[in-house]
């Protein structure tokens, strides 16, 4: 039993060390268990399924607006070579999402909040940021670590309690619950804040007006139904984070090295 535990820990550590890299534009270290091509494959499979279920919009204005914006953001993403695809789905849903490998979807219901390309760019850049920061990959990788850590803690409890199965079961339940709340949930908050941050950087690089971002999120947060914020946080922290990024970009102190020059 002890040998198995040791082996599990060693395997876990080797995996983590070999899978470490840093996120573009923020330099945050992260662990990715899957390769870019595995990620692309997963994204493509999900995308094909979703396309079968959703009604693809033929609204030429909305499609043209999305295309105009995305075509400016992709070249500055640093991952222009992904197989990017973007579509508008016909639905009242006021939301947008991204899949790994460069698939971006906007529901037609969200367009009523966009009074300009800059405003659409706020949401598009946030979604593209999730893709280039490879957040889905990291989320799945964290789940793997949580599973290894969960198994390790159960094995440890088993050894420490001399094989008391009841005590082992309790430890296992506590460990899994703790891992979810203390480890996995904060990751999704980190990812949202990071997508906001990288999104603003991409907007700046592509020449969009980053100053629309704060009023846009405030307007959208006040007026929209809950669909977008069921998958994205709406909070004062978020606005503060975006304000910080914009001010760092303007003063030339942002980690990315990107600078917004005064006009
Ligand atoms: Zn998001």
Main sheet specs:
3 strands, mixed
Helix content estimate? 55-70%
| SSE sequence, one letter per element | HEEHHEEEHHHHHH
The structural class is: mainly alpha
Radius of gyration: 21 Å
Mean pLDDT: 87
Topology:
Elements: H1 2-18, E1 20-22, E2 29-31, H2 36-53, H3 60-73, E3 85-89, E4 96-99, E5 103-107, H4 117-132, H5 135-160, H6 165-206, H7 213-223, H8 227-231, H9 236-251
Parallel strand pairs: 3-5
Antiparallel strand pairs: 1-2, 4-5
Helix pairs in contact: 1-5, 3-4, 4-6, 5-6, 6-9
The structure holds zinc ion.
The site of zinc ion (ZN) has 5 residues, from α4 and α6.
Account of the protein in words:
- The chain is mainly alpha-helical.
- The chain has one domain.
- Helices cover 63% and strands 8% of the residues.
- The protein contains 9 helices and 5 strands, in the order αββααβββαααααα.
- It has a 3-stranded mixed sheet with strand order 3-5-4.
- Helix 1 runs antiparallel to helix 5 and helix 6 crosses helix 9.
- The N and C termini lie far apart (67 Å).
- Bound molecules: zinc ion.
- The site of zinc ion (ZN) has 5 residues, from helix 4 and helix 6.
